[in-house]
Write a structure and sequence with these properties.
The structure holds two protein chains of two kinds. Chain A is an alpha+beta fold. Chain A contains eleven helices and 17 strands. By secondary structure, chain B is mainly alpha-helical. Chain B has eight helices and no strands. In chain B, helix 3 packs across helix 4 and helix 6 packs across helix 7. The N and C termini of chain B lie far apart (53 Å). The chains are: A alpha+beta, B mainly alpha.
Chain lengths: 486, 165
């Protein structure tokens, strides 16, 4: 190699002191003779010296403190946008109400709001792992019509708690872009009346038909459990954001499938959770989704699945499976019509809303339950679901008045069609965006001088503050405990 | 309310993240923005981090990358001129002025460089990490770190030749 080129190539290593003595001597000898390399060597030395000076820069304490405060406020705002209160219901409620509530859990658990898209990570043991993801994403994003079935698995317990068995309910479902869903419920094993529900997730309207009774209900939806972009858009978000691993091959009635899984910690419910994606090995199509995955619950291996049924006392949803998925299905427009058929009795229900007074009263119910102190947080939920479940587990006569009040209030809002917390509904309908702030931690119920939360009503220029005695007053920004936008 | 463990992470590493961002960007406000970007991105994926995350390596890598991207976005702003002004330059002592000038020119150069070269340069020459530490943070070999660093030095030496000569 040309001596000049060799020495010149070694200049960065020489400047960094990385060369051995022999090479270093060679470079020095060349520098004595070559002006061009000498100049470059000087520039490299100057660069290293100058950048050393940058190491002394730092951030002062005030900057650190304010950065921390801004960050935690931003985190709190993000949490407020993702409320999800999910409770288990005992068999004292009708089967339909229990399953409907659990649909909220499975849909909410599945439809994680994933902000931003990161790098796609796949760690599969199959050559077609990356191809699987690409093909599934294409299926989900390009299809305009889908049909599938959803089977819910419920663990049922007898009243004496000594016997357990598994019951299932299956619904036939269809989707047509944009945002139209059709759900047919004709599984009458539990005395339920067959019905059809058509949902327009874009315009937030729903039609429920009970053909046997020629009865129709039209209502505005307060809480969307269906994505306007399709039933499996959450799968696309999971595939982009999370690690997905190949698990196993399975033989099914329709052929061999590869099972892929993503496992994670469900913070809201403080439990391990996972999703299993079943991909047909021949067609490479998504044919089933298991929530949670078989690592947490496998309906084919649960020993209770063969136990005889008895009289149900407590129902616990354990799993949902979306299966027989068909992309690009042929679906007529009439299947998604939101006008009731002729001859039906029609009931129109307005979209449920939560008034300011109801929202404030609910804060009081939470504080009463929490031993007279407002909870540390209200989002994503004020109390862990297992804590609420323990109240349900108690016989009614053993509950305190505050516990019973909390359960009845939650039940009231759920029956009204509000699956989210009433506070979240009030904010959604009445509060200016990003204006709600909760600061109730440690505030005693009745403390008229301490602010529990504040917000700005839409269209208003002033803030409203809720105090510990549940009074509400207008407040100037400078009177609030934290800085707010003017 | 943020997870307590998340808050503990912010308390332990927040100053390091801010300092690294300041060293790249030279601006406390910009460094705060990067600090928030870094930790918000972690928060949004909080449940995917297990107890074995090497936070030091992860945060160095992420902070440097986001700081350089921030500088790149700032360059695309039409208000940014080719030769960035140093605010209050007439009041600064010579040494501080030279440092401020270097940082501004360096930021601009790093924003134009291939990302890996820029990351390695910052982690090595500004953050003072060893080749082994950088290799761990960027998940590559030390040999790769050396190659990127040498290329970065060459490039910067060329682009800052008028300043360095």
């Amino acid at each position: 190699m040309n001596e000049h080129r060799k020495a010149n190539g070694l200049l960065p290593a020489f400047a960094l002191g990385e060369l051995g003595s022999r090479e270093s001597s060679e470079v020095k000898a060349h520098l004595a003779e070559c002006e061009q390399c000498r100049q470059e060597s000087k520039r490299l030395d100057a660069l290293l010296t100058c950048t050393n000076a940058l190491r002394a820069l730092s951030a002062d304490e005030e900057t650190c403190a304010s950065a921390r405060e801004s960050l935690l406020e931003a985190v709190a705002r993000e949490e407020m946008r993702q409320p999800a209160a999910r409770y288990e219901w005992p068999a004292a409620l009708v089967w339909r109400a229990v399953v409907e509530n659990r649909i909220a859990k499975f849909a909410a658990a599945a439809a994680l709001v994933l902000v931003g898209f990161g790098v796609v990570h796949f760690a599969t043991q199959r050559d077609h792992g990356a191809a699987f993801a690409a093909q599934v994403l294409e299926q989900i994003e390009n299809t305009k019509a889908i049909t599938w079935k959803t089977t819910y698995y419920m663990q049922v317990t007898s009243r004496d708690g000594k016997r357990t068995w598994i019951e299932t309910e299956t619904r036939q479902e269809a989707y047509k872009s944009p945002g139209l869903y059709r759900e047919v419920f004709d599984d009458t094993a539990h005395g339920q009346i067959p019905h059809v529900t058509i949902t327009d997730a874009v315009n937030r309207r729903e039609l429920t038909l009970v053909p046997e009774e020629k009865r129709a209900t039209v209502r505005g939806i307060a809480t969307l459990l269906r994505s306007p972009r399709g039933p499996f858009v959450w799968v696309g978000e999971v595939l982009r954001e999370r690690n997905v691993e190949w698990v196993e091959e399975r033989e099914t009635a329709t052929g061999r499938v590869n099972v892929f899984r993503t496992a994670f910690r469900d913070k809201a419910n403080n439990q391990d959770w996972s999703y299993d994606f079943w991909i047909d090995e021949e067609t490479k199509r998504l044919v089933a989704l298991h929530v949670p995955g078989a690592d947490i619950y496998d309906p084919e291996k649960d020993p209770a699945r063969n136990n005889p049924r008895g009289k149900a006392w407590r129902l616990t949803p354990v799993c949902s499976v979306q299966h027989d998925i068909v992309f690009d299905a042929e679906l007529g427009e009439s299947l998604f019509r939101l006008e009731p058929p002729e001859g039906y009795t029609v009931k129109v229900m307005a979209r449920p809303q939560v008034t300011e007074k109801e929202m404030v009263d609910y804060l009081g119910v939470l504080a009463e339950y929490n031993n007279g102190t407002f909870p540390d947080q209200v989002f994503p939920f004020p109390f862990p679901s297992d804590q609420i479940n323990r109240i349900w587990d108690k016989p009614k006569e053993e509950r305190t008045a505050a516990e019973q009040k909390l359960l009845e209030t939650n039940n009231h809002y759920k029956m009204a069609g509000l699956n989210e917390m009433p506070i979240a509904h009030f904010i959604m309908d009445y509060a200016a965006q990003d204006s709600f702030q909760y600061l109730g931690k440690g505030v005693g119920l009745g403390d008229k001088d301490r602010i529990v939360c504040w917000y700005r009503l839409k269209g208003s220029s002033t803030y409203r503050a809720v105090y510990g005695d549940l009074s509400t007053r207008d407040a100037a920004p400078e009177d609030l405990p934290l800085s707010v936008a003017p | 309310m943020a997870d307590e463990r998340f808050e503990a992470l912010v308390d332990e590493y927040g100053a390091m993240v801010l300092a690294a961002a300041v060293r790249v960007l030279g601006d406390a406000e910009a460094a705060r923005d990067v600090h928030q970007e870094v930790f918000l991105a972690i928060w949004r994926r909080w449940d995917t981090f297990n107890g074995r995350t090497n936070w030091n390596a992860y945060l160095y890598r992420t902070t440097v990358r986001k700081a350089i991207e921030y500088a790149k976005r700032a360059r695309r702003n039409p208000a940014v001129r080719e030769s960035p002004d140093i605010p209050g330059r007439e009041e600064m002592p010579d040494a501080s002025l030279r440092t401020a000038e270097l940082r501004a020119r360096l930021s601009a150069c790093l924003a134009k460089m291939p990302p890996r070269q820029a990351d390695v340069f910052v982690l090595s020459r500004i953050e003072g990490l060893s080749h082994e530490e950088i290799a761990g943070a960027l998940r590559c070999s030390t040999a790769t770190v050396r190659v990127h660093l040498h290329r970065a030095l060459r490039r910067l030496s060329r682009e800052l030749s008028d300043y360095l000569s």
